[in-house]
Amino acid sequence: MSSSVLLYDTTLRDGAQRQGISFSVADKLRITKLLADFGIDYIEGGWPSSNPKDAEYFRRARELDLGATIVCAFGATRRMNNSADHDAQLIGLLEAQTPVVTIVGKASRLHVEQILRASKQDNLRAIEDSVRLLKREGREVVFDAEHFFDGFAEDGEYALACLQAAESAGADWLVLCDTNGGSLPETIFTVIEAVTRKVKTAIGIHAHNDCELAVANSLAAVRAGARQIQGTINGIGERCGNANLVSLLPNLALKMRQAVRAAEKLQELTQVSRQVSEIANLAPNNFAAYVGHNAFAHKGGLHAAAVQRMTASYEHIDPALVGNGREILVSELAGRGNIRLRAEQLGLDIGEAEQIVTNEIKQAEARGLSLEAADGSFELIVRRQAPNYRPPFSVRDLMVQSLRRTGEHQKSLATAKVQVDGVETLTAAEANGPVAAIDLALRQALNPFYPCIEDIRLSDYKVRILDPEQATAATTRVWIEATVGEQSWCTVGCSENIIEASAEALLASLELFILRLQEKGANYGRINAA
Amino acid sequence: MSSSVLLYDTTLRDGAQRQGISFSVADKLRITKLLADFGIDYIEGGWPSSNPKDAEYFRRARELDLGATIVCAFGATRRMNNSADHDAQLIGLLEAQTPVVTIVGKASRLHVEQILRASKQDNLRAIEDSVRLLKREGREVVFDAEHFFDGFAEDGEYALACLQAAESAGADWLVLCDTNGGSLPETIFTVIEAVTRKVKTAIGIHAHNDCELAVANSLAAVRAGARQIQGTINGIGERCGNANLVSLLPNLALKMRQAVRAAEKLQELTQVSRQVSEIANLAPNNFAAYVGHNAFAHKGGLHAAAVQRMTASYEHIDPALVGNGREILVSELAGRGNIRLRAEQLGLDIGEAEQIVTNEIKQAEARGLSLEAADGSFELIVRRQAPNYRPPFSVRDLMVQSLRRTGEHQKSLATAKVQVDGVETLTAAEANGPVAAIDLALRQALNPFYPCIEDIRLSDYKVRILDPEQATAATTRVWIEATVGEQSWCTVGCSENIIEASAEALLASLELFILRLQEKGANYGRINAA
Fold first, then answer.
1. Fewer Cβ in 10 A, N or C end of chain B?
2. Taking a C-beta distance cutoff of 8 angstroms, is the pair A13, A45 a contact?
3. Which residues contact A261 (CB under 8 A, 6 or more apart)?
4. Quick one: which of A120, A231, A232, A230 has its CA closest to A175?
5. B184 to A409: CB separation less than 8 angstroms, yes or no
6. Largest CA distance in chain B
7. How do B228-231 and B70-76 pair as beta strands?
8. How far is C-alpha A173 from the chain's CA centre?
9. Cβ of B430: how many Cβ atoms within 10 Å?
10. Distance between CA atoms of B16 and B10, rounded to whole angstroms?
């Protein structure tokens, strides 16, 4: 397949500019392999002369099998007072030994005169020399024209002269950068149309999301004739981020019928997005276009019923095309059909208990439990209706004291009386907060019977006040995520008393884990005992 | 100023469809007042006949002073087999007594035939009848044409006939909905251009973000002649969300030079966005266009230095225009000038204490206190540095026990040892939750000295987990609003222990109230003693 648009990923360079991101060399290599397997055309790996980590990355990236995907080194045009041959930064770019080198240069007169404090002519010479050196060394050269759109508005003739300088030196790509992210799609479109009448070299677009328009701006560029899109996975990047390749790819492939190489593996899109989030240590965006957990969720009773009647009518694409799934949210609006469907999605047989389960769910929701975001609590309700259900434990008493004496930090002390198989255990534990103390006391009590619960890690905890105008008498909803290895599940609790709500979520979490093991016929020993 | 584009907010209806959102009536009223003060033209309040909460909202919203802003009730066209006069749902819409009613009706032949299982003609009659009834009752009528763009692609003639049915019955607005969010900007543009040649009624756009194009689609609609944009604050909504009014407003006002009423208060944009996040109990998006904490942050050394040299060169707009700030915001308050300004806004003289107050604020913010949304805690820090400051009370010990025995609800018992003017009092109180118990015990102890505190009503209470991945060991921020008559103030507390965080906010709230009375030289008697 011959591509009409090439995707150029800069997650590892511009994406890493996002506050809070710091990729190790191993992270960068994992992302490189992932994106190459996915079929991204170019991967910008970093700025080799900027730090030793990037230099190491380029050395090790050469050893990877990346198929048709090309790793690019990123840098800038030579310094104003250097010759290209003696510019340490350009030499660093060559030493990265990538087949493609991308260099950024100024395309705005204002920036040349006021930031670089150079003459317009000097900047043109720097562009030309730098591109020529890289071409002489056999590289494919991408010229990133920084601040192109702002520069074009200030002084269109000079902005074009910068592109022509790169073109005359043999640049393979002229990438027009909306560096500050302030342009509108119609500006991008008309400027690129004008540019294509003045240069012959293939055009690319590099957009930022400062107006929440980076995806639209990139698509407008393609309509105007651009053949390369620079962006990042999940749109991460400086300030508000870069153009999001995860949205762009299906928009190009499914909506605009453009030929893009990665479209052949479009059904891996959701997985790629989530894996990059994982490596970057970012929580995935549940509301992301195409790949978010909620991108194909249906909440309103009206819609949920209609979705089942005629799937295509309430979805803009089949979620399977991008490797995502349909999510039917259980909620007070949901009918019985949805509950059976949801149970089946979780691999549970609801059997004869449909009416009872439906009633239990309605009661739970009326109490404020909100099961739509708590698969674990939903599953527990279903499992408790199974004919062979036997509660794995019962909590008789649960007490927690929080004490602050002058000048001291508050401490919490919890005691739990728990019955398992007729045996009653009383335990006590202390922690900084009351919920942590309860958690410890419960685990102590359960541990002799179910050592496996030591493996459970509480990985997330959320508190929501349902009727805040009731102030301290308000109902509190607590949401807990628990994790063991790859497995994770969410449970909720609800009460006027935040301690009780937390305990409910915690107990549900522990019980579900034990019931799941029971079903598998597993023993209760630790999975990863030290 | 005559507006060229009107903003129609549906945060309270379509926004509330986002998974995890559940607004109380008090939340909805606060958002309504906030958006009206900001200058949003229309506020869609809810679906009156869908639940009693929404009916109560409309009753109470009528009592608010909303200036030129209009609250709209949302519903649907009549059922196929009803007459409009006897349709319970339409009657519910009229009973909401809003000057504007918005009704959604099908505009896709496929949906009419396969979801409604009705004839094309029946649907047209339902649209016409419903609009006519509402017009007869004197309402401004907004007709939301559901699935319009998909419907137009399937059968353009029928989609237009649906609009014409609404127009012939006197609809004031025809809003074209991209219900599934799958359309591209150029489709939106060309379809609206075609529509405006066939109908005379003003056009609106309702876009969803399933392709990460909702903002661009709304702008394309405006370029094609649409005069109303429906969207939500921060783009919250079902699936991937609705068009984000927070991005649209500055794009319209600053980039497209459109006349929009809310643009007069554009510098409040960041605050409005954050307050709605706070009420919805959502962490604000740091990377949001225009209003994110990072929207004008500069990380790369190159950029940061250049920004200082020539501000405009690396920012697409001046962040002050939208009430945002430059740099990575540790706090809005961080600079000293700002602290003096803020204190003056609150009518406080900071005197010689500027440096001490600045340090106190930095320490508080570093602990996670977030004084931006807690004027009361800020004021308390300032007041504590006044030369004549004397603590009105000091809490020696504070203890709370929460106990659940089998089959009983959890009860909390608090004891407080408080010193006022050298006199120590020990009190105990019981309540459903631990924070309510502490509140009662403290009031009992303080009441003999400051009877006025009986007048304080805690009117709002919010809990946010700052580092949820730390689970039950996470830091908790508690935010409390207290009210006496017309006066209300907000304080925060922060700790790993939710009880301690709540107590901190509560104590700050009580102390501030007493200090304010002291300043006025008022006695501490009750204001509205029964």
1. C
2. yes
3. A1, A3, A6, A7, A39, A41, A68
4. A230
5. no
6. 84
7. unpaired
8. 29
9. 13
10. 9
Quickly name the fold that domain B6-279 has. Answer: TIM Barrel (3.20.20)
- Of the pLDDT bands very low, low, confident and very high (cuts 50, 70, 90), residue B304 is very low
- How many of the other CB atoms lie within 10 Å of CB of A303? 20
Q: How far apart are CA A78 and CA A223, in angstroms?
A: 33
Distances (CA, A) of B377 to B284, B387, B509, B521: 21, 18, 8, 21
CATH 3.30.160.270 maps onto chain A at 394-520
Q: How far apart are CA B32 and CA B44, in angstroms?
A: 9
Could you say which of A436, A463, A496 has the minimum Cβ distance to residue B465?
A463
Give the model confidence (pLDDT) of B232-254 as tens digits: 999 999 999 999 999 999 999 99
Mutate to test the interface with B, among A369, A497, A502, A510 (most CBs of B within 10 A): A497
- Predicted confidence (pLDDT) per residue in B16-75, tens digit: 988 878 888 888 999 999 999 999 999 999 999 777 788 889 999 999 999 999 999 999
Copy the structure tokens of residue B204: 């609106």
Q: Are B217 and B188 in contact (CB under 8 A)?
A: yes
Exposure b/e, A467-504, CB count within 10 A at least 16 = b:
bbbbbbbbbbbbbbbbebeeeebbbbbbbbbbbbbbbb
- Residue A41, φ and ψ in degrees, nearest 5: -75, -45
The angle subtended at Cα A332 by Cα A328 and Cα A336, nearest 5°, is 60
Residues of chain B with CATH 3.20.20.70: 6-279
C-alpha angle A117-A121-A127 in degrees, rounded to nearest 5: 90
Q: What is the largest CA-CA distance in chain A?
A: 89
φ/ψ of B97, rounded to 5, equals 55, 40
Considering only alpha carbons, which residue of chain A is nearest residue B472? A436
Looking at chain A, the domain(s) classified CATH 3.20.20.70 span 6-280
Distances (CA, A) of A337 to A272, A333, A341: 32, 12, 6
Q: Sign of torsion, CA A324 A329 A335 A336?
A: positive
Residue whose tokens read 């419903």: B130
**Chain A positions in Cβ-Cβ contact with residue B410 (cut-off 8 Å):** 398, 495, 497, 499-500, 503
> Considering only A199-208, B76-85, B136-145, B466-475, which range has the smallest mean pLDDT?
B466-475
Residues from chain A that touch B434, judged by Cβ atoms under 8 A, are 402, 434, 497-499
Across the interface, whether the CB atoms of A309 and B404 are under 8 A apart is answered: no
Measure CB to CB from residue A295 to each of B22, B210, B247 and give the nearest one: B210
Please determine, looking at this structure, whether the domain spanning A6-280 carries the CATH number 3.20.20.70: yes
Helices (H), A197-300: 214-223, 245-250, 269-280
Q: What is the pTM of this model?
A: 0.73
Instruction: Give me the long-range contacts of B84-92 (CB less than 8 A, separation at least 24).
Output: B84/B129, B84/B130, B84/B132, B84/B133, B85/B133, B87/B130, B88/B49, B89/B49, B90/B130, B90/B133, B90/B134, B91/B49, B92/B48, B92/B49, B92/B55
Positive/negative CA dihedral, B383, B389, B392, B394: positive
Confidence grade of residue B529 (pLDDT, cut at 50, 70, 90) = very low
The reply to whether residue B402 touches residue A499, judged by beta carbons under 8 angstroms, is yes
Q: Please give the CATH superfamily to which domain A394-520 belongs.
A: Alpha-isopropylmalate synthase LeuA, regulatory domain (3.30.160.270)
Helix axes A25-38, A269-280, angle to 10 degrees: 170
Top mean-pLDDT range of A209-213, A416-420, A440-444, B330-334: A209-213
- Whether residue B131 contacts residue B93, with contact meaning beta carbons closer than 8 Å, is answered with no
Stated length of chain B: 530
Query: Which residue type occupies B164?
Result: Q
Other CB atoms within 10 Å distance of the CB of residue A86: 10
From chain A, the residues in CB contact with B398 under 8 A are: 403-404, 410
